[in-house]
Every structure is written in structure tokens, then in C-alpha cells.
Amino acid sequence: MRILVVNGPNLNLLGKREPAVYGTTTLWDIESRLKDRFPAVKFEFFQSNSEGALIDCLHKAMDGAFDGVVINPGAYAHYSYAIRDAISALQTPVVEVHLSNVHAREQFRRHSVTASVCKGVVVGFGSMSYEFAVQFLVESKS
Ligand code: DQA
What we know:
It is a single chain. 32% of the residues lie in helices and 18% in strands. The protein has 142 residues and is an alpha/beta fold. It has one domain: Rossmann fold (3-Layer(aba) Sandwich). Strands 2-1-3-4-5 form a five-stranded parallel beta sheet, sandwiched between helices. Helix 4 links the parallel strand 3 and strand 4. The radius of gyration is 14 Å and the shape is globular. The mean pLDDT is 97. The structure holds 1,3,4-trihydroxy-5-OXO-cyclohexanecarboxylic acid (DQA). 1,3,4-trihydroxy-5-OXO-cyclohexanecarboxylic acid (DQA) binds next to loops.
């Protein structure tokens, strides 16, 4: 099983960025934990601070190249119709994740323009949000 894990802007700073909100786990820690916990899954990891690069990466999941996609669009979740359209173009299931509970934060974070074109959304469980998303993709495939 192949899963693409995509992270948007500022998520490369995890571990150093607002630790009170996002914790001290780095993106590298999250990715290593996914590989350890799901050894049968072939992961591809991608992070970018650029909208276009994220869209190009999502296009790689067209035509059955991956069995599922996990995406943390970062702040793009709240306003990027271009990323929404890229997700919408995919046939493979996409799960949106957020480390923090966006519903308990500023008003602008409470709405995601990408969520409604995803299979589901996992919010507020820190790095475990990614693990729950992968678990869903693995169990729904088998
Ligand atoms: C985030 C939540 C977003 O609102 C924020 O812009 C991020 C991180 C999260 O994982 O909690 O960059 O996606």
C-alpha cells in the first residue's frame, strides 16, 4: 500500500514553532513514527511552503499512483481554493489532518475550504492525527 503524506507551509518548523500550540515533535519525528508504526506501508513524504508545489505534488496522486493521501494543508486549509480543486480532482481517498484543535482557536481557523472534498478530517490530536489518518486508510483498504 502506498500513501502520500503532504505538509503545507510552516510545518517544516514543527518542534520550534509555537511549541505551546504544536508541541515539540518535529516533522521528521512524525514521519519516522509513521514508518515504524506502519511498516507495510510505502510512504512518500512531501513538505512545501509554496501553494503551487503542493498542488504539483497532489497531482502525483492522480491515476492510482497512491492508495491514499494524508494532507495537512496548514493555513492553506482556510483559504486555498486551488488546493481544494487539486484534492477534488483525485480519486484516491484524501484525509485532512491538523495537529491543533482548529475549532478551539481563532475564528478564521474554524473553517476549512479543503475539508469538504476530503474523505474525513482528523483534528487536534497532535502527531497522532497523522497516525489516525493512516490507520483509517490502511483499514479501509483491507
Ligand atoms: C495547522 C492549523 C492551521 O490553522 C495552521 O495555519 C497551521 C497548522 C495544524 O496542524 O494545527 O499551519 O494546520
